[in-house]
């Protein structure tokens, strides 16, 4: 199987989560194909893959763009499980979508059972400042509480689009390096420790 | 009337010593009642004073009254309107219009006015009055009753005045009374008085006769005087006739003299013309001794300029258009013969020298140029701005040769004019020697080009540290060429498992560009040189050349196409019609130029084609590079009809064919793809390879006007791939066709989104749609698996309902009784369901390939469908078996827990 010369190439799996219409697909398409789609077409689930150069290293990124509306949250469990990092998106023009991030965060933590899972809180539609409903302070407050970075993006102007994906990939990468080191040394201990912590919470 | 006249005279005129001469009864025009009288009156005291009075009577009984009075001489016009009219107009201070009551009276009045006015210095003009009225004789009408009064001058003066009665004036009365006094006896003795009177009368008669007789000799004298005058006149006349005759003879003589004079004049002029012509002929046919000497003794190359001058003279003499008939003159014929001899001398001298020169240049100088050029940089060669220095090899130019020959241009022209045959022969020698020289040059040049390609390739592929010294380049690559030739051509097909296009696209491109851009100046320079040196444009006169240039400039803006490459990119519109004739002429010239160029560059086309064929071994995408580069050079060529452009154009046609063949091969390879035998089908090779293929092609064709050719093929290829994906989807023995379609269309959609090839936008959307269809088909086909029997049962229920069975009566059907329902439901306890779902998940995992990463997408779809199915079954139970108390043995909550558990177990 010499088909993939970069078989050893790193692959980072990113999941887009957030309420419907906040711009998950718009961010993904902007990142993938440099295009902005004006029309809103609700997503069920879409998978993308791209080769990028991350800090000089060629890596692959898998993006799973998910549905904002889902009748049964449990349906998400499976793909949350498969994700290595999450872009949790809300629209700064819609408070509900900001509130919904709380639920997404909880579900991810539950499924991944990992407090330190790579995770970015993303406030999208930053080009629509005049319609802003969620203040910067409010969003930053929540991200600090969770201990994750907060970035505001615009899928329309491409502002910070690359940044959120690359920042997340860096986190995923460093997590993988950590895990590797851990599994080489006192890996089992560490895993246990994490689990315990979770249970305490 | 007479009474009225009498009354008027008595009542109003006599008082003033005036006498009525004529009277006319008139009315104011159109007012019949206001009648009045116009009276022509003479004053008795002052002679020759005539007046016209208008006299009126206010009513019948009252007295007459003078109303107006004018001097006759004050009347400007008397207008009778016409002969039959009764009207009368007098133009004085204004126009007075009257109409008369009696036409005779009117006529008399007018006639009298005329007669009286005749004596006036200023008289009125008579208008519209018949001529016969205006004569003095017409006075015959006038009564002469008063002429009896005889002697009175007053009466004599106006004997014609109309009127039957004239009263005796005072003077008449005194005259008469004095007469009567003398003849106091008259009363007493009338007889005596009569006698006295008649005696007086006869005395008077006698006196009269006597005076008549006395005048006779005077008459006679007068007659003789007249006779003398007549005689004198006839004498003069006779003399005049004599003179006339004399003059007549002189005129004839003069005429004759004139004719003679004219003839002499003509003769003179003819003689002068003849002389002039002779002089012209002689001077024109004469070549000066000095020039003759040069023509006889000149040597080349030393006496080039003198020879040109002499040759021009000779040509002028030879080509002088002799006036008709003059060539029959033996002197002229003789001179012609002499000129012919000179011509032969000139021709021999020039032709021999140039012949030797051509051969010498072809052999000796050409040799050295060819040899030195490959190593020595020619400073005056236009170097292409190729970035790759290593491939910057040179094609030697003929600048040295052309410089050497240029001074002979004028002599060539003379030779052509003087000796067409020798000129043609010489042209042949030139083309032949230069042809073989160019052939040699091209051989070196193209060999060099190939060497560049091989050396790099060998270095690249065999990691062979080849000596790159150029001197060895001529020998060493021979062997390498063999290896290259024998090595497999690097055609890379879309169907290949691994996309590994071989070759050196950039190198190929730069070498090709270098070759093409070097050929251009060399060929164009040679062409330009030949046109002037061999006078290929000689049958275009200078003026038409100018026109041509103008026309060309005009049309060049609109026609950018190349007529030489018609069959690949439509004929350029041939400009406006008014330059058609010119272009026809130009075409003729072009044809001649092209033919000459073809003779001078006999090997160019073959060499170029060989090189292009050779390129096939250098890079998988060779034909794309060639197509783009050649097309660019053909397009940029200013001289579209030139030999080089046409050679390029025909090479371009070849390249286009090769390109089409290449794409056809790719297309065929897609159809011929063999499906792998591995566990999963995954992404088909052509789908996988298309990304890199298109990226490479896009890169080669970017900015090229050939892009449309590529785009046409894109659509064909994608259409073929769509077909192939569908047909190949059924060929894999492990992966279901839906999965093959789903994954490949998903991949293709992703590729097309990345490539953003606008002509494929429609296909991009189509790929997405096909992907979604396949996903749906896949999920539909597999979601039922875990609950197969349940599904089967309720499909039956649904069919019955659809066929018209009432929902409440379904349970009475044998196959769908409550019993049956319970049995089927029992078969799916929660435990079984979970097992089924887990089994399904594993199966899906097995079908899908890792690269396309669609597991989560598919699984999410399957979960959704499963839940929907569950809800549907629950609903059917509620509706068709309402009181049965049967429920499925698992709840939605169970299902969601199963999903979470499946998720956590991975
Ligand atoms: N002005 C502006 N509009 C945006 C931006 N991002 C998304 N939109 C618009 O918001 C609408 C929804 O965007 P999507 O990307 O489809 O939203 P989504 O999060 O994928 O929605 P679901 O697929 O239903 O979960 C679209 O009409 C987008 O054009 C942004 O940054 N600025
Ligand atoms: Mg979406």
Automatic annotation (TrEMBL), chain A:
Bias (Basic residues): 189-201
- Please verify whether the record's keywords include GTP-binding: yes
Gene3D superfamilies hit by this protein: P-loop containing nucleotide triphosphate hydrolases
Pfam families for the chain: Ras
Location in the cell reads: Cell membrane
- Chief site of localization: membrane
The Enzyme Commission number assigned here is 3.6.5.2
| Disordered: region residues | 179-201
Q: Which PANTHER family match?
A: RAS, DI-RAS, AND RHEB FAMILY MEMBERS OF SMALL GTPASE SUPERFAMILY (PTHR24070)
What is the name attached to this protein's record?
Answer: small monomeric GTPase
Gene (name only): LOC105364542
TrEMBL record, chain B:
| The UniProt record lists the keyword Glycoprotein | no
| Any one Pfam family match given in the protein's UniProt record, by short name | Sec3_C-term
What keywords is this UniProt entry annotated with? Coiled coil, Exocytosis, Transport
Return the annotated region ranges for Disordered: 462-488
For this protein, the record's InterPro entries field holds:
Sec3-PIP2_bind, Sec3_C, Sec3_CC
Locate the coiled-coil region(s) and give their ranges. none
Gene Ontology annotations for the cellular component aspect, listed alphabetically: exocyst; plasma membrane
Its family remark reads:
Belongs to the SEC3 family.
For this entry, the protein name equals: Exocyst complex component 1
């Amino acid at each position: 199987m010499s088909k993939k010369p970069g078989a050893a190439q790193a692959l980072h799996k990113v999941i887009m989560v957030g309420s419907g219409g906040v711009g998950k697909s718009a961010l993904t398409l902007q990142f993938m194909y440099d295009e902005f789609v004006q029309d809103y077409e609700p997503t069920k689930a879409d998978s993308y893959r791209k080769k990028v150069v991350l800090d000089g290293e060629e890596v692959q990124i898998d993006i799973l763009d998910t549905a904002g509306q889902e009748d049964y949250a449990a349906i998400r469990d499976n793909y949350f499980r498969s994700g290595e990092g999450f872009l949790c998106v809300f629209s700064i023009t819609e408070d509900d979508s900001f509130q919904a991030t709380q639920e997404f965060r909880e579900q991810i933590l539950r499924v991944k059972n990992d407090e330190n899972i790579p995770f970015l809180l993303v406030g999208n539609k930053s080009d629509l400042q005049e319609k802003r409903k969620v203040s910067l302070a409010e969003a930053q407050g929540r991200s600090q509480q969770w201990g994750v970075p907060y970035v505001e993006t615009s899928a329309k102007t491409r502002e910070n689009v690359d940044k959120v994906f690359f920042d997340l990939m860096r986190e995923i990468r460093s997590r993988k390096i950590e895990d590797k080191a851990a599994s080489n040394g006192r890996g089992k201990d560490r895993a246990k420790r994490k689990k315990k912590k979770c249970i305490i919470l | 009337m007479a009474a009225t006249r009498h009354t008027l005279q008595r009542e109003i005129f006599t008082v003033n010593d005036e006498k009525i001469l004529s009277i006319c009864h008139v009315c104011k025009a159109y007012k019949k009642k206001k009648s009045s009288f116009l009276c022509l009156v003479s004053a008795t005291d002052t002679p020759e004073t005539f007046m016209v009075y208008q006299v009126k009577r206010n009513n019948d009984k009252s007295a007459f009254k003078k109303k107006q009075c004018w001097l006759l001489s004050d009347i400007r016009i008397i207008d009778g309107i016409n002969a039959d009219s009764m009207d009368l107009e007098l133009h004085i201070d204004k126009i007075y219009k009257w109409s008369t009551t009696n036409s005779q009276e009117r006529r008399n009045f007018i006639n009298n006015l005329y007669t009286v006015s005749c004596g006036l210095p200023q008289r009125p003009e008579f208008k519209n009055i018949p001529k016969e009225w205006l004569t003095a004789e017409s006075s015959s009408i006038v009564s002469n009753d008063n002429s009896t009064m005889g002697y009175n001058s007053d009466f004599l003066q106006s004997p014609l005045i109309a009127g039957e009665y004239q009263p005796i004036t005072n003077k008449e009365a005194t005259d008469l009374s004095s007469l009567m006094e003398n003849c106091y006896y008259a009363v007493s003795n009338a007889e005596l008085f009569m006698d006295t009177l008649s005696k007086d009368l006869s005395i008077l008669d006698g006196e009269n006769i006597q005076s008549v007789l006395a005048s006779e000799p005077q008459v006679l004298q007068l007659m003789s005087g007249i006779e003398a005058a007549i005689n004198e006149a006839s004498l003069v006349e006779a003399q005049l006739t004599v003179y006339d005759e004399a003059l007549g003879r002189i005129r004839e003589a003069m005429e004759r003299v004139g004719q003679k004079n004219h003839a002499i004049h003509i003769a003179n002029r003819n003689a002068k013309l003849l002389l002039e012509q002779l002089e012209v002929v002689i001077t024109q046919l004469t070549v000066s001794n000095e020039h003759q000497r040069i023509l006889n003794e000149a040597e080349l190359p030393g006496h080039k300029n003198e020879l040109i001058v002499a040759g021009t003279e000779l040509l002028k003499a030879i080509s002088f258009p002799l006036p008709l008939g003059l060539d029959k003159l033996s002197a002229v014929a003789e001179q012609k013969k002499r000129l012919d001899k000179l011509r032969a001398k000139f021709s021999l001298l020039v032709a021999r020298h140039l012949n030797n020169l051509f051969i010498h240049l072809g052999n000796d100088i050409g040799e050295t140029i060819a040899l030195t050029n490959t190593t020595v940089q020619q400073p005056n060669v236009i170097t292409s701005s190729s970035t790759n220095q290593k491939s910057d090899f040179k094609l030697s130019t003929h600048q040295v040769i052309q410089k050497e020959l240029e001074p002979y241009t004028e002599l060539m022209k003379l030779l052509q004019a003087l000796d067409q045959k020798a000129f043609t022969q010489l042209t042949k020698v030139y083309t032949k020697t230069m042809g073989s020289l160019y052939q040699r040059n091209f051989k070196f040049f193209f060999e060099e080009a190939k060497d560049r390609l091989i050396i790099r390739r060998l270095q690249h592929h065999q990691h062979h540290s080849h000596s790159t010294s150029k001197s060895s380049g001529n020998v060493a690559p021979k062997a390498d060429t063999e290896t290259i030739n024998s090595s497999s051509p690097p055609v890379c097909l879309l169907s290949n498992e691994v996309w590994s296009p071989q070759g050196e696209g950039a190198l190929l491109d730069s070498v090709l560009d270098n070759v093409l851009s070097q050929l251009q100046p060399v060929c164009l320079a040679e062409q330009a040189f030949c046109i002037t040196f061999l006078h290929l444009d000689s049958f275009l006169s200078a003026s038409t050349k100018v026109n041509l240039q103008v026309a060309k400039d005009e049309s060049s803006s609109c026609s950018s196409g190349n007529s030489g490459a018609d069959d690949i990119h439509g004929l350029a519109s041939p400009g406006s019609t008014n330059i058609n004739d010119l272009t026809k002429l130009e075409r003729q010239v072009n044809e001649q130029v092209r033919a000459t160029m073809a003779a001078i560059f006999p090997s160019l086309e073959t060499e170029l084609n060989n090189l292009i064929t050779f390129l096939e071994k250098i890079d998988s995408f060779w034909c794309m590079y060639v197509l783009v580069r050649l097309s660019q050079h053909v397009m940029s060529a200013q001289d579209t009809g030139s030999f080089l452009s046409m050679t390029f154009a025909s090479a371009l046609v070849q390249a286009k064919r090769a390109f089409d063949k290449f794409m056809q091969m790719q297309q065929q390879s897609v159809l011929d793809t063999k499906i792998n035998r591995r566990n999963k089908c995954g992404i088909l090779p052509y789908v996988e390879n298309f990304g890199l293929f298109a990226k490479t092609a896009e890169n080669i064709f970017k900015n090229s006007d050939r892009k449309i050719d590529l785009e046409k093929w894109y659509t064909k290829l994608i259409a073929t791939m769509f077909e192939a994906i569908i047909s190949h989807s059924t060929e894999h023995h492990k992966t279901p066709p839906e999965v093959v379609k789903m994954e490949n269309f998903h991949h293709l959609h992703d590729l097309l989104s990345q490539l953003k090839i606008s002509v494929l936008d429609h296909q991009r959307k189509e790929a997405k749609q096909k992907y979604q269809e396949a996903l749906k088909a896949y999920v539909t086909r597999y979601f039922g698996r875990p609950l197969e029997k349940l599904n089967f049962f309720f499909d039956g229920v649904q069919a019955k309902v659809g066929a018209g069975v009432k929902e409440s009566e379904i349970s009475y059907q044998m196959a769908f009784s409550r019993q049956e329902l319970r049995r089927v439901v029992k078969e799916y306890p929660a435990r079984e369901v979970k097992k089924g779902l887990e089994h399904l998940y594993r199966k899906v995992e097995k079908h899908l390939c890792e690269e396309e990463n669609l597991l989560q997408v598919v699984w999410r779809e399957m979960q959704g469908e499963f839940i929907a199915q569950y809800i549907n079954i629950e609903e059917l139970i509620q509706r068709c078996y309402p009181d049965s108390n049967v429920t499925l043995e698992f709840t939605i909550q169970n299902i969601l827990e199963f999903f979470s558990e499946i998720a956590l177990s991975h």
